[in-house]
Design a protein that fits this description.
Elements lengths: L1 H5 L4 H10 L20 H13 L4 H9 L7 H27 L9 H12 L2 H24 L5 H26 L4 H25 L1 H6 L4 H20 L29 H5 L10
The protein binds fe (ii) ion (2 copies).
Amino acid sequence: MQAARDKGIDWRRWRDLFAARQDRPLPDPFAPEPALAELPGSLARSLAIFQLGESGGGTVVGQARHSAIRGIDRDFAEAMALFVAEEHHHAELLACAVRMLGGELVRKNWTARLFVFGRRLMGLRLKVMVLLAAEVVGICYYRLIASRLPDSRLKSVLLDLARDEATHLEFHCAFLRTQAGSRWRRFVFRVAWRTLMQAAGAVVLIDHRHALIDLGIPFETVRRRWSSIGRRAEWKVCRASPTGDDSQPFYFPVASRETADEPLTDDACCETLSPLPGGCTS
Ligand SMILES: [Fe+2]
Ligand SMILES: [Fe+2]
């Protein structure tokens, strides 16, 4: 248990952070909003797929509890359990959103099955890397969808989800940083991470293409945004000092100009995440 503290990651902070927000109430069923009446049906289908993806994750808790790898402790395992519970809270919020939009929840989806299948084959390190990729996709997707919605409960829920995913991104980066102590390990991480991000990006574009097209979100914008956030995550794992300020979680504000009435810009991600060395262009 002392090992994690010696390496500068005090997992109690993460446990306490997730514990402090675990009692957030579920909203009443979302009332239909006239402003959202014209949204395409493909959006409900797309959110239903994300709802399914937010519903899993239980096996990683058991692995965290029983893993003997260095750099983690009982507090990490408890934080992981609370993180999974928070993802389940997201699933419940998205279920409310899907029903409000008149859509139906899905029980099976090929990308969700692929995601779960991959995770079950993996050890804790690779599994957390897959979870990190899901956070990048979630931040990117929820914010882009929200940017195309009028002010509404759905929009604020999606922005709240994106904020949570940013915290999760920090949590996973903190863990992976403890596992990337040597140059060789960082090289392996970079290769695996970039490959995973490419694959995850292609899968999400294919699976959610109808909603993206119907909402007028260019694929290139999606790609550039998750590339920027993905590079930021890679930098945090490979370059940051485990004991420096970079280990502190951040909470990004919503960029006020990212509204449905204004064009999506590629640098919007840099407004919300800490500056990336080398700028924001991909
Ligand atoms: Fe989530
Ligand atoms: Fe998340």
